[in-house]
Amino acid sequence: MELKYKSTRNPDVTVTASEAILKGLADDGGLFVPVEIPKLSVSLDELKDMTYQDTAYAVMKEFLTDFTEEELRDCIRKAYDGKFDTEEIAPLVKVNGMYHLELFHGATIAFKDMALSILPHLLTVSAKKNRVKNEIVILTATSGDTGKAAMAGFADVEGTRIIVFYPRDGVSRIQKLQMATQKGNNVDVVAIHGNFDNAQSGVKAMFEDKALAAELEKKGYQFSSANSINIGRLVPQVVYYVYAYANLLKNGEIQPGERINVAVPTGNFGNILAAYYAKQMGLPIQRLICASNENKVLFDFFGTGVYDRNREFILTSSPSMDILISSNLERLIYLAADCDAEKTSELMEDLKSEGTYRITEEMREKMADFRGGYATEEQTCRQIGQVYRKTGYVMDPHTAVASYVCEDYRKKSGDMAKCVVASTASPYKFVKSVMTAIDEKYGAEDEFVLLPKLQEISGTAMPEAIREILDANILHTLECDADRMEETVRSILGI
Ligand SMILES: *Cc1c(COP(=O)(O)O)cnc(C)c1O
To answer: Is the pTM of this model over 0.90?
Structure first.
């Protein structure tokens, strides 16, 4: 049976998986969602002996039903290969009474690699399937990690171009360098004078601009998105939750059927939504602990039912979570509204015009699996130091937010179910914050001086992704004002 996708804002639009991947966002501004979340068709017992690649196939084939087995396996093989520095792809490490699911072993040492290594392949197969002749232009707003991971995934992939926008002052020095040194003839990077939400709104506006789309079409281009709103990003992220559960089962850490909790450092709500989809597929997950930094819109939302982005935007040491509009939440809203596109549309309209919306009590009850929590900068910093002193394990600030929130949740609720913490970035990527958290004396030192020191104190090898930027050339220096993003795109594409 073919699984179709609908827009969260219009019940009359149905598309295939490959069409949804190609388009990224629906024409009405809604997000594509499967008409029904499929169930796993293999047992957890079977899954426990599978490789990451076979697990990926078992999960993804349920969602991407218009891909042949050969096509899908080919995409998986090209994505999850030697670019990852471990054969396990997503290893699970026991730390401080929790299980850290390390999602940072790919090319750019952050969890975005998990999906962005495969998206370009899903996209080129989708283009062939739908007889697309245009060159596909990937337009991406990034708070730091997506941009580099997307560029690394798409660099020199035939039939594609990629343009990335990031907030000039909102990413770490290493993140900036990673992007500015990206090779590839089809790659452009622009630093905008604004924050991530400005970048994301600018990209969304271009996607929704029909006149612009018509002009692009004439020149042989069409837009697509690599942002986590693309269903081709979400589906590969379901895989590692299934893999983690099977891993716990295999190692006797849990009993068959035992329910676990997951704690996810959250920004755009993609990663945690993937965990929720995994639960809907049949994975025994009890609670989904949504961890925020000081930009705690989601904590407030789960506590009150009111989403309110009207607040100060705070720059933190976990920049990939510095977000006030979590786009993927729309998919949860849609599910909680019993797939009522009109209701979802109304709420999203309120968000756009008022910056806020309130969901009904009934909808709140449907989200009872979720718990919101947050960590202040000080708590995050202390968590890194404490866990290091206790165990020798070094966490990046994003992971530390989830680690803190998970521990805090346990203390307050007494719920001691086994907990998987999504570990979303390598500490090397945020070396300054991490080292300073461990000892203030490092605060005065240069990031590049700290890298070998991190290696020394953590006993982990310096990742290739770091070694390669140390002496690479700066290739991208383009900047623009937040309200001139469209002009910049036009000039890059020559239209
Ligand atoms: C993107 C990112 C997050 C947030 O993930 P979402 O899917 O946007 O919620 C957390 N940590 C790191 C390191 C990231 O790169």
So the answer is: yes
